[in-house]
Amino acid sequence: MEAVAKLKNVPTSPRKMRLVVDLIRGVRVNKALTILKHESKHPAARLEKLLLSAIANWQQGNEDAKLEEADLYVKAVSVDSGRMLKRLRPAPQGRAHRIRKRSNHVTLVVDSLAPAATAPETKATENTEK
């Protein structure tokens, strides 16, 4: 079972966030946490907190499974553009330059590499018996 965590209206440009997100996409959770902890870019701290939230969401959905045996990995991470604050900065000769303060939305999906318990397929067996 996969777990999702979302982070909205992060006051960082999407381009800067994507540079850090590309480091952890498809990586196991323990390695991703280590990467984010030692990354010097400022979005790494927010992503580390988001990853911990996704792990907690997975644990809440799978209370009977152990975290160590689940072998979690970062299945998907997407960074979308958020709302943009538009400001004006004075420029020479009475002009004004636009300042666009960008923000972003991050969606992180964590899944287990371990094979999940398969549910019995009742409909498939009923159709073949008739």
TrEMBL record:
<dbReference type="InterPro" id="IPR001063">
    <property type="entry name" value="Ribosomal_uL22"/>
</dbReference>
<comment type="subunit">
    <text>Part of the 50S ribosomal subunit.</text>
</comment>
<keyword id="KW-0694">RNA-binding</keyword>
<comment type="function">
    <text>This protein binds specifically to 23S rRNA; its binding is stimulated by other ribosomal proteins, e.g., L4, L17, and L20. It is important during the early stages of 50S assembly. It makes multiple contacts with different domains of the 23S rRNA in the assembled 50S subunit and ribosome.</text>
</comment>
<dbReference type="InterPro" id="IPR036394">
    <property type="entry name" value="Ribosomal_uL22_sf"/>
</dbReference>
<dbReference type="GO" id="GO:0005840">
    <property type="term" value="C:ribosome"/>
</dbReference>
<keyword id="KW-0699">rRNA-binding</keyword>
<keyword id="KW-0687">Ribonucleoprotein</keyword>
<dbReference type="InterPro" id="IPR047867">
    <property type="entry name" value="Ribosomal_uL22_bac/org-type"/>
</dbReference>
<dbReference type="Pfam" id="PF00237">
    <property type="entry name" value="Ribosomal_L22"/>
</dbReference>
<dbReference type="InterPro" id="IPR005727">
    <property type="entry name" value="Ribosomal_uL22_bac/chlpt-type"/>
</dbReference>
<keyword id="KW-0689">Ribosomal protein</keyword>
<comment type="similarity">
    <text>Belongs to the universal ribosomal protein uL22 family.</text>
</comment>
<protein>
    <recommendedName>
        <fullName>Large ribosomal subunit protein uL22</fullName>
    </recommendedName>
</protein>
<comment type="function">
    <text>The globular domain of the protein is located near the polypeptide exit tunnel on the outside of the subunit, while an extended beta-hairpin is found that lines the wall of the exit tunnel in the center of the 70S ribosome.</text>
</comment>
